[in-house]
Amino acid sequence: ETEEPEVTETQDASWTKRQYEEFNRRLREDPTNVDLWLEFVKFQNEFVSHTADPERQNIRLNQALYEIKSSVLKKALEKNPSSTRLKLVQLEVCRDHWEGDKATNTWKEFVFTNPSNPVIWLYYLRFVQSKFTSFTVNGTQKIYIKCLQTLKSLQEGSLKSHTAHAHTTEYMIAIFARMCRFLFQAGLSERAIAFYQLLLEFNLFQPTVLSSVSSEEKLEILEAYWESPSPRLGEDNCMGWRQWTDSKGDRVHSASPVIFILTNSPEQDEEVEEVIIKNYPGNKGASWVAMERSRLSRHWLPWRGNIALGESEEDCEDPERLVLFDDISGAVFSLRTDEQRFQLLSDFLQMLQVDVPCTMSSREPLCQQFETAGQGSDAPCGLYPDKDVELLRGLMQNDYAHFDAYISNLISQTLPVFSGRLKTLLYLLFFRHKVKTVMKQEASLSKKDFKAKCKDCSRIFKTVLREEANRNNLLLWDFYAGFEWHHGSQESARKVFDMALAGAKTLQSDTQRLYRTYIQCELGLTDRSTTLGFQKELSSEAKNRALHLIVSANNVMPFIPFAPSKSHNTSVNVLRARKNFEELLPQLLERLNGELSITDLQVLAFVGNSLLHHVHNQMLLLYLTSGLDSAIQLHSMVVSQIPVRTHREEAPKWEAASFYSDKVLELLDELRVNLIVFHLNVTVTSRSVLHSSLCSGLDHFPENSHFWRLLLDIENKVGAISKLRAIVHRHAKEEAGLVVWLYAALAEFRRMNKLQADREVCGSSFVMETGVTNQLRSWFEQAVSAPQGERSPLLWRLYLHLEISLANATKAKGVYYRAVQACPWSKWLFLDYVNSGLGNLQEITDLMTEKEFRLRIPLEELNLLL
């Protein structure tokens, strides 16, 4: 028992030594191979972990790792002095080790010599935002604006010394979105929203008469609209810059007072704050946090004077709520295509908590929205654990009053700007937002009131579908029919499905999507049924109806609705459907593989969706007629014929359309997993097939939250925490992303809460530290030491929550100081610590003031209220 670990350790060390020698040999032969140098740098983590003394402290290990990596990178740059990738890695590795301002000065020089490289700007902005010693909110915003102005000069051709990047505009949109999210996290929601309002007005509602005017002249004209009392984008009665200019809006609005949404009267604000003070008697820190959060939730829009009352800028009690044109005009730039304008609007909606589907695989950096997560208002899409885990939801969301009304206004006001597929996507966002708004109210409404709300949604959807341009829009009909099925009448939904399919062309992608939704509804293969443990009996009628739809989906003949009295699913029809699919599949695969070299993601999405819908329907056909094994065999065959991208670069989607193959493969894996879960819910069988399928899926897509959620379900039901920990350990060695750490932490939190609940049943309320709490600390330490995790406010807030819940003041204080050093821009970290009662309120607010955070309730005002 004592010798076996030594043998294993010796073998591992011997293997890493051979690998080290192999890297040296290959680099001597090919010293200009940048990818090989980067692999060698990454390998140092494994080399040090296997060769270092286990008794050495983490700090000494990190120092040793830094020295080795910096030495390797120095040699690599000597051989490849022009490599920006190597330089970026060097700056990242050395940022906390270089003395004084060396890192800052090196970054400034690097950006100055490469002003046209937007990737370098992105890394530089991240460095500036996370450098605690020099960080200030306003200073960081100025650097963001300087970056946008530099790229704008390249975009317009006024900066002649360098050539603009091919996708400069797309990068500018990404940088602008990051700046606004940064401001949102810092508590400056008014400024973040004003930036979006102005840029969207400039690009979506520009008067046609200004098409030939320079950007500077357009901004001068836009300033008159911005400073006028006319409602802005998203507010009630907003007409937009173009219509305001055409109708001389300044005279129109002076005649009729504007009604603003989201505005409380001073008396209402005073009542709210009086209640807050009463709820926290004697607790100054908790009162301050509650007041700060309350004002943020009520005053998140830029302050506008009520012209009906004769208010002007001088009447604003808090000047910080004012956002002047000069404060934000420096970040305005032009967008050339509707796709770019739609991306800008999507980013804004996502910041406002609208679930915007990601078009890329979860492996892609731009689809992983966790670097900025955890500010209390920005919930990454897809990261919602089971209903019993409220901790994460509480940290990721905040109750911003009237968000729903503002979002509805924003979408309805921008819909006329778009056409075709983009307009359809915006309608779908609008539909989903309406449904999400109603579903949030379900728990607080009676069944009658909830049903009335659903009927209101149904009326809105019908109104949209009655418009001439939408009558044949199958994607909108698909959403409406699915909504009717789950929240209305199934018979009514069947009529909608049948009517839409009757006039549709069978082989179109949208038609196949409609068939797919209809089949899922008949089988009960919904989001709820892909949760483990949702038991459901599969009736023969549901099976027959689904088979009829699958056969019809593979038939070129017109659709015939299902009739119980007729025999639709003859063996001949089923065989013909299978044969049609077998003939169509090679064509779909060939077309997908042939289109991966293009850059038009809309074409790729069309081809990929066609393949996915057909494979989905055929897998269900095989499942219903031949069993689960046949369906999984089809999945394996299809996956084997789609190329897997082995070399990965952090390139955004507009630079690498071939990344879309990853999205197709990930969705195919989700089809397999969901079908297995459905099978487990309608039959009694072993969960091993699901476990192996999830492990396979996570090997390829470790950031897929759906797979991790199901793994947690299995662990919760069978208590196999050791298997889950082993999977996390394996991914940790491969530089796990944030999703891995978040679900690892959630699993341990669940176990810790269960143990605590058991203790309380036994009459003990004392919070004990156990092996689970130690495991949690281990996960968090590994997570916040990783590059992504270190800059995630959400992870730090979870870690801080752990120590606070354990009443460990010393460790909580240590985590807080480390957290603000790593994420100095997150106002919510400061609020969490004050709310715990462990921090000195005066010292923390002094630090926030020094870093130029906006304090909505200064301590002097709070003292007067108390």
UniProtKB/TrEMBL annotation:
The keyword Chloroplast does not apply. GO terms for cellular component: catalytic step 2 spliceosome. Its main location: nucleus. SUPFAM superfamilies: TPR-like. Gene3D superfamilies: Tetratricopeptide repeat domain. InterPro entries: NRDE-2, TPR-like_helical_dom_sf. GO terms for biological process: negative regulation of RNA catabolic process; regulatory ncRNA-mediated heterochromatin formation. Pfam families: NRDE-2. The keyword Nucleus applies. Keywords: Nucleus. It is found in: Nucleus. Belongs to the NRDE2 family. This is Suppressor of forked domain-containing protein.
